[in-house]
Give the backbone structure.
Amino acid sequence: MAQKVELSVDVSKTGAKIDRNIFGQFAEHLGHGIYEGIWVGPDSTIPNTRGIRNDVVAALKAIKVPNVRWPGGCFADEYHWRKGIGPQRIVTLNPNWGGVIEPNTFGTHEFMDFLDQIGAEAYISVNVGSGTPQEAAEWLEYMTTAQPTTLAKERAANGHPQPFKVVSLGIGNESWDCGGNMTPDYYLSQMKIYSRFVRSYNPAQQDKDQMLKIAVGPGGGEPRWTEWTEAVMKAYQQHTWSWDINGLSMHSYTVGHWPPSFVSTGFGESEYSQILKFTLDMEDLVSKHSAIMDKYDPQKKVALIVDEWGAWYAPSPWTNPGFLVQQNSQRDAILAALNLNIFARHADRVRGANIAQMVNVLQAMVMTDKEKMVLTPTYYVFKMYVPFQDSTFVPVAFDAGTYTHGDISLPRVDAIAAKDKAGKLWLAITNLDPNRPVEIEASLTGITAKSAAGEILTAPKVDSVNTFDAPNTVVPKPVSAKALNGKLVLKLEPKSVTVMSVEQ
Ligand code: AHR
């Protein structure tokens, strides 16, 4: 039997802007995330533009990726940019991820070309762990200066006379762990040097539109990470003219326990409910670190950037465990919606997030196998949520009810609302219950709703996936609702994500 959940939305009470950058992506040199997934090379028989796969570009364009974080991850702290420019690339190794050959054929120019093709901006993570401030500063000069320096001339000789734009700069990655196992104090001493000397010289970034500098932040809620956030934010509060940060990164995977042991397909309701319970911890984590940031930065000048998040399961059988290959199911679609809702509710502080990772790695948008490509359930959630990019948050009040499985209890329903730039109201509603539909009754104050229309994403089973042979098992279908006595009434299928706009 369908359960009833009443939502009330007061359209006059708007909140913060939901920054489109919370829909950011992460592409690391890891497994087939770059090579084969994005880069096939200009001589490939797979249709490509200057070596970059056309099918992947078309898919990513459709979800309006705002920014891509690159080249890592742990890889970033071993990346030396000079090996990836010019006609003669230096072949190295990728010790973090399977110890495989890194051909460096996908470097700065190829990354920027890829961004141009999909219409996204660059979030570059510089090497603090094994690089130097000089190396990072020169990379930024190479990429961004418009003046005729030797590095700018080299960039022009390599095919790009115009300066590139680097919108965000990550100063290290997980410096408390794979990025060099630093203490907060040691990291701070490094971070201040990078913040001071690693500059964007792009003329378009000299006034308001400055490159954002993102410091390494926490990787969880335990004391060592609250101490880390305290240390960085306290330093920020006392910062002088010579250094600054605009963001604090946070990494949090839905993993259950390390090493990752939940399987990504062939599971049942028990694993479905456990994983969703784990993923909802994101709310506490964001609240906890936001509260620390509020102490030192009450004006919320420093954004919390959740630049690695998503599900991390056991590697799929028969794959290289260092390549982090996993399937992507309807459970992941629900998980993605729940996290995006959390970020939207914290839009005043969370102004960026990057799901890990975009192609073929962890909770991917698309998966490829030679010339084949398939869109994942998570992809469709990102596509359905496009109207929320840069929209204005509208609070929704509701009693979510409870969905229980064994000893796990979860909210039955989650919902957010927002107004887009044209003033249109959008609702995103997730029914977590995998067995029962939910009847939604939404009262809207401030507008007279006639109807609503949009899409619903559900699937036959919680572990339903799209495969190369059956790519349309989990795809959105149209849904609509009528207004009855001033309320929108609709029934949402079990384990579903719905996004709809309201007609007045
Ligand atoms: O996304 C995979 C890895 O997870 C990243 O390289 C690292 O930053 C994190 O530990």
About this structure: Residues 28, 72-74, 173-174, 178, 308, 356-357, 362 surround alpha-L-arabinofuranose (CB under 6 Å). The chain has a mean pLDDT of 97.
